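Q: Here's a chain of 106 amino acids. Please give me its 3D structure as C-alpha cells.
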Amino acid sequence: MFGRKQLFEDCVELAPAFGILDETPTKLTLALGETHPNTSRSAGEPGQTVDIENVEHMGQFVHQLTQEQMKRVQAAASQAYQQQQASLQQQQQDQQKADDVDAMDR
C-alpha cells in the first residue's frame, strides 16, 4: 500500500488502522527475479531483494524493469527472425537443388 502517512497519521478515525500499520515495516521489499505466481526459492530464503522507498522510486524501478524486459524481448525476436531467415534460405537452396535435379532428368 502506498500513501502519505504524514497526511493521515493525525486523523483520530484512522488511529486504529495506523496502530496496526506501525507494527509492520513501512518499506516495500521486492524479491528480484521472481514473477507472480512462480517462486524459485523456498520461503525461508530471502534471495536478492530491493527496498522501495516511495511511489517515485517504484515508478523508476518499474520503468527500469520494463526497459530491461523490452531489450530481452527485442533480442529474442531478432534471434528468432535470423533463424527463420536462415531456415527459409536453406529451404530455397534445397528447392533449387531439387529443381536442378528435375531439369537434368528431363
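Q: Can you summarize the key feature?
A: The first helix runs from residue 5 to 8.
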